[in-house]
């Protein structure tokens, strides 16, 4: 009997690829055939980031890799979210239909389910036309999804206009127990309160209810103990199966396509005392200007504590390389700068004391699963909401506050590092939330049971 064949479709961004890759590994372990569909550009990046000796399905633990065009030319700027979203929405449904036809013509088992990112919900109808059932995957928090689905109501109530701009200057909360959020810091905005990728991104969000209602079920990378209030907002069944991980040993590749991981990082951590290291990472998209970069660097130096800092090659522009070389010499005995690392392995390491984070949902759940206190430095999108969870609801971290000119100063960083590391209650709450997350994914836990339900539904 042929294995059930599931097609995975993430939005083309690292934070969307990773959780679906983690879910793919879990499904392969449960006997599914999984075809993972990236856009051509990200497919190439995933392949190039794999070890030189690896190749094909074996490199990703039995997950077969496939690609479709995003509709943009090779020299188009894919960091222009308006252009990317508009092109994906116009071109990807047709390319997905062609891919399914090609897979079946090549003798692959019939695709029975599409597990598709809601951010590419425009492809759901194409799947339905082919007789494929749809599981809508939401890679962020349930509270964020609830906000997105409430956008028409929020517009009707006059909080926002139909372009996504705030009409009222106020904080609001969907229901008690969910994170309070200011109208200038919504999941479609940057830190200046401007809708990102306008007009295409917000136009896409206004269609989320349409896509959501097309799905046969909804999956979310969260867990009940973290988002009990938000999960009660959904009238239809939503399966919280998080926090997702590929394998408990953290050895399986999860499609990191930015840069090869720097293996020095873990060896360096092995030499540090327990609970001593400040880990600093801002994901795949955040960019700092040179002034803020220098303040952050000197703030880490000022703490006098060991640190691991992830600095992508495109993290800042215009910085003096002579200054950076001199800084690295000064902190050589204390800190290590890497271009990329296995974040889950770092956060699970006994030496890590706290996490200076942009608060992307993957980073947030990875920190939660390891009981690590946070220092929150959000950049855009759902990161403001995640910060509110950390500082207002779970109370497992502190916010880094910018000065009047918008810069987080070195003194602010040093002060908050000392505060978070000296706060026993924050550490205690972080450990309790870690324990709750592990109970949820442990045998008979709520996420474990949701995943079992998912496996049974996908297997039909």
Automatic annotation (TrEMBL):
Pfam families: UDPGT. The keyword Nucleotide-binding does not apply. Keywords: Transferase. SUPFAM superfamilies: UDP-Glycosyltransferase/glycogen phosphorylase. One of its GO terms (molecular function) is transferase activity. The keyword Glycoprotein does not apply. PANTHER family: GLUCOSYL/GLUCURONOSYL TRANSFERASES (PTHR11926), UDP-GLYCOSYLTRANSFERASE 83A1-LIKE (PTHR11926:SF1412). Belongs to the UDP-glycosyltransferase family. This is Glycosyltransferase. It comes from Urochloa decumbens.
């Amino acid at each position: 009997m042929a294995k059930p064949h599931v097609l995975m479709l993430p939005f083309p961004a690292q934070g969307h690829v990773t959780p679906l890759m983690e879910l793919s590994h879990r499904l392969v372990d449960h006997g599914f055939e999984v075809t993972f569909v990236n856009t051509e550009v990200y497919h190439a990046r995933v392949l190039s980031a794999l070890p030189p000796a690896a190749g094909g399905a074996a490199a990703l633990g039995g997950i077969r890799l496939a690609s479709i065009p995003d509709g943009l030319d090779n020299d188009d700027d894919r960091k222009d979210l308006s252009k990317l979203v508009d092109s994906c929405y116009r071109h990807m449904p047709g390319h997905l239909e062609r891919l399914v036809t090609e897979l079946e013509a090549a003798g692959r088992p019939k695709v029975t389910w599409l597990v598709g990112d809601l951010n590419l919900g425009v492809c759901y109808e194409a799947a339905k036309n082919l007789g494929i059932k749809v599981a809508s995957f939401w890679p962020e928090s349930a509270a964020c999804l609830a906000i997105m689905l409430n956008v028409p109501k929020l517009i009707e109530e006059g909080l926002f206009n139909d372009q996504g701009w705030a009409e009222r200057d106020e904080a609001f909360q969907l229901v008690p127990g969910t994170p309070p959020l200011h109208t200038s810091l919504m999941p479609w905005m940057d830190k200046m309160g401007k809708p990102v990728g306008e007009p295409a991104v917000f136009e896409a969000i206004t269609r989320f209810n349409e896509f959501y209602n097309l799905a046969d079920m909804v999956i979310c990378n969260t867990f009940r103990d973290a988002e009990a209030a938000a999960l009660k907002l959904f009238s239809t069944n939503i399966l919280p199966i998080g926090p997702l991980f590929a394998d408990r040993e953290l050895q399986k590749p999860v499609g990191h396509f930015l840069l090869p991981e720097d293996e020095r990082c873990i060896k360096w951590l092995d030499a540090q005392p327990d609970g001593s290291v400040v880990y600093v990472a801002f994901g795949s998209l955040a960019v700092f200007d040179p002034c803020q970069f220098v303040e952050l660097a000197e703030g880490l130096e000022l703490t006098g504590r060991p640190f691991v800092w992830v600095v992508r090659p495109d993290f800042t522009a215009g910085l003096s390389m002579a200054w950076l070389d001199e800084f690295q010499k000064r902190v050589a005995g204390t800190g290590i700068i890497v271009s990329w690392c296995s974040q889950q392995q770092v956060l699970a390491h006994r030496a890590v004391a706290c996490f200076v984070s942009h608060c992307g949902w993957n980073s947030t759940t990875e920190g939660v699963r390891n009981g690590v206190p946070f220092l929150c430095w959000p950049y855009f999108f759902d990161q403001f909401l995640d910060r509110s969870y950390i500082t207002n609801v779970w109370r497992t971290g502190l916010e880094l506050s910018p000065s009047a000119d918008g810069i987080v100063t070195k003194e602010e960083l040093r002060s908050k590092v000392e505060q978070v590391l000296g706060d026993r209650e924050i550490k205690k709450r972080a450990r309790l939330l870690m324990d709750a997350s592990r109970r949820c994914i442990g045998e008979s836990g709520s996420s474990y049971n949701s995943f079992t339900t998912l496996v049974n539904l996908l297997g039909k």
